[in-house]
UniProtKB/TrEMBL annotation, chain B:
It comes from Tumebacillus lipolyticus. Residues 69-162 form the Thioredoxin domain. Gene3D superfamilies: Glutaredoxin. This is Thioredoxin family protein. PANTHER family: GEO12009P1. The lineage of its organism: Bacteria, Bacillati, Bacillota, Bacilli, Bacillales. SUPFAM superfamilies: Thioredoxin-like.
Length: 156, 162
């Protein structure tokens, strides 16, 4: 094989390994965040219910159900991201959950919530600010990038 | 129909059967995984539901003597001798102090009433509360003592005895 033929091949293989590495990092980071978030909520499930109540978005009857279901979904999303076979559906889970959280935060933007945003369990009372919403946007962007990189692989 | 055609048909049906079995085998881990996930969700939901109810009961029992700010103020104006325990549900120090202080006051037969002052800006200003938890002793219509923050059991005990 001549030198000119070998170079593009090396270039594309290093590009592929970079993409694989990026995908792995994205999956690990997002999985870590969602597993941490789920565990923090499991530790004090009642207070998470109170956090949901403080958002003034949901009817009282649904608080307990959602306080139980949301951390379970987060746990499954976190585990799903770690399994190659389920990473696509888990990435969609990240997008949907983050969209829901961002919606709740935007609804209360500027308001002082008794437990802060409560994204990773209860905190001190704090006003919902740009950083809280931006965090969710970052998760959405990360999951979208993961989906895009997986799509590229499928197309290739 | 010739022998050749019949053999061809048999071969095709055999291949189809094999293909179906292969697909079934491929689906098996998905079905198994889904069943396991459903069982985990069910067990998890039951355990979490119990945890939720237990904590709710504990909180209810702990703050059963809770009074509103206006009720506290009417007690002050009627010159009652009592302790007002200012707390906030989100305050981490209150989560430590409440389970220790409230039963202790009950044991000592002291009149202690929790008052949730979260978001009550006028109460913070009127009683010059700098932080929670804050235990204020009211006697003859005025404040006679105050203890702020997370303190030791003996400090609270001595304050309640005064």
């Amino acid at each position: 094989m001549s030198e000119s033929n070998r170079k593009p091949h090396l270039k594309s293989s290093s590009k592929n390994s970079m993409i694989s590495l990026l995908k792995l990092v994205l999956r690990l980071v997002l999985a870590g965040i969602f597993l941490w978030s789920a565990i923090a909520k499991f530790m004090d499930i009642f207070t998470f219910g109170e956090i949901l109540r403080s958002y003034n978005l949901l009817p009282d009857a649904s608080i307990k159900l959602l306080a139980i279901l949301l951390p379970i979904v987060e746990l499954f999303v976190g585990i799903g991201l770690l399994i190659p076979f389920t990473q696509r559906i888990a990435a969609w889970g990240v997008i949907l959950l983050s969209l829901a959280f961002a919606g709740g935060l935007l609804y209360n933007y500027g308001e002082i919530l008794p437990y802060g945003c409560g994204c990773f369990g209860p905190n001190e009372a704090q006003a919902v600010g740009f950083l809280d919403v931006f965090k969710d946007i970052l998760f959405i962007a990360g999951a979208a990038l993961l989906l895009l990189l997986n799509r590229r692989k499928t197309l290739a | 129909m010739g022998k050749k055609d019949r053999n061809q048909g048999k071969r095709e049906s055999k291949q189809l059967r094999r293909e179906r079995e292969r697909r079934k085998k491929k689906r098996l881990p998905i079905i198994f995984g889904s069943v396991v996930a459903c069982v985990i969700i069910l067990i998890g939901a039951v355990v979490l539901s119990n945890m939720y109810d237990e904590t709710k009961q504990e909180q209810k029992a702990l703050y059963q003597d809770e009074i509103s700010v206006s009720e506290m103020e009417s007690k002050v104006s009627s010159q009652d001798d009592f302790f007002a325990y200012f707390y906030q549900p989100s305050c981490e120090h209150c989560k430590v102090v409440s389970p220790m202080l409230i039963p202790m006051a009950k044991q000592m037969n002291e009149a202690l009433f929790p008052v949730n002052i979260y978001g009550k800006n006028s109460t913070w200003e009127k009683y010059q509360v700098e932080g929670t938890p804050a235990l204020i002793h009211f006697k003859e219509g005025k404040e006679v003592g105050r203890l702020v923050g997370e303190q030791s059991k003996t400090t609270f005990e001595e304050f309640l005895k005064k």
